[in-house]
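Lecture 7, part B: from sequences to assemblies.

Below are the input chains for today's worked example.
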Amino acid sequence: MHLNFKTRLLRDPWFVSGGAVSAFILIFLLLSPVLVVHDPHDMAFTPFSPPSAEHWLGVNDGGMDIFSELLAGMKNTLYFGLFTGLVCLVIGSGAGLFSAWFRGIPDLVIMRLSDVLLAVPAVMILILLAAFFRPTPLYLALILAALSWPTIAKVVRAQTLAVKTGLHIHASRQMGASGLYIIRTHLMPELYPLYLIGFASKARMAMFMEVSLSFLGLLDPGRKSLGMMINYALRYYYLDIWWNWLLPPVVCLTLLIMGVTFLALSLEKVFDPRLKEIM
Amino acid sequence: MRRTGPGSNLLAYALAALVMVHAGYLLPRMLPGDFVSAIYSSSHVTLSAAQEQELRSYYTAQDGFGRYLKDLVTLEWGYSYAFLSPISRLILQALPWTLLLMGSAHVLSMIAGFLAGVEAAWRRGSAAEKSGVGIMTVLQGIPEIGTGVILLMVFAFYLGWFPAVGGETAYAELSGLARFTDILKHLALPFTTLFLAYFPGNFLLTRASMVMILKKQYLETARAKGLPSVRVRYAHAARNALLPMVTRFGLRIAFMVTGALVIETIYSYPGLGTLLFNAISQRDLPLVQGIVLFSSLAILLINIALESAYGFLDPRVRHAS
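Predicted structure of the full complex, as structure tokens:
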């Protein structure tokens, strides 16, 4: 069954293209210690110098090497997304499993709480917190995750309720398995497509948020980010810098988001049986 | 998606509104030390001693939550020192532009996405449908910032077809039709960016729901009765694809507002997003707080309105409750 999914994933053009784009970005980032010769915070170069052998993408208005900035920003955006996605996944699947397993009052409380959180516009809370407290990106990621786990929790809960009534669960309970054992060995592995789908969509959302917040100037200006680069470059778009300063972060951001989007889409398509007939 | 009757989620929305309002009240009062001088020291705005005192007392006033709520309702949202204007006036000035931009982008992308989705599902398997789905999926992967910057560079900077900044030509004092076309010209690029961001999602979702609906037996009945195919498509099938689109809109609106903030800033469109951006860069905290609170309450209101639209759109929801 797993093998079947694997071959179907590998045959899906969206999975292949999304995977290729993501792999390309990862290799690019892994090679960054070799590629980057300048410190992205080093302001020692001539501002607005055009691309040269030493500065592949030129130098920005503050005298910093754009190529090193680009790699540092991409790394920050990617980490923010992956970390938020992971925390969302842990809280969301934990809450979903918990409320489906115990039902009753815990279920009611968790589901009402997620209804409220779904109604709260997360970006507004983030803007407010970022403007007043200037938290580090780590805290922002945690807050974003704390606000956006409910969609994962709802999906995991629904699927757990469906799996819970299965005969194999009854059988293992009959044989005296503890609740924890059943959750660990029978429920959690069976839900794994949901983790992948949830993780990918949350990571995408978080990367988009990070770029937007840094574009709006809400994150620490000393921390490199694609959004901040786009914002700074846009101020000089009438100069002839657009192709070496403005375009690279835009293209990198688009590739980053596109890769994750295609992966999420293809996972959903392959693992959700209802979608099989549509595509 | 769990379908609950209208009203059951009202409590959640009310609680969420309370959370937002209370956060606006509580956060500034939780800040340690003299944050007014700490934050305004890095701002371009210089405050006189009296203004600084006033701001400090605004934030540390122990009037209680009741007073805060009363001020909120009576539009007493404080005073912006960066713009030297009451906050409520600034917000109400910017609001029509945001409504124009986001409203037109949403309404048109929903109508166009819906029609295109219905037609695509009807022509399932054709080359046009397949390439349409492919193109829309690729478009869905492009973030608004990317489209916005590229459109700005190509159509405003290189070709010069459309203006790059603002909502209308400043000091032009145009009237009547000339002003209308001027506004439309300024709207074109930000509108196109948002349209390109929203259209693919609406198209793909409508198409997916329609493909499922078209398999239903009642459609075979409708066709067997000899009804014209337009009537089968829209009166019998497409109505059922409306509800998922409305649900998606409600779930994604907070996310879409984030994109609109960025797009308004890129084109310096005089709406709430640009106002927020300026407030942030000037460290004008009362204004940031006012905009955030105003937009969150607006988002909640839209969600509540959508919730009550369910029953109107789908009689099954109405009769179930």
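Note for the exam: The two ends of chain B are 17 Å apart (CA to CA). Keep this in mind when comparing with the next example.
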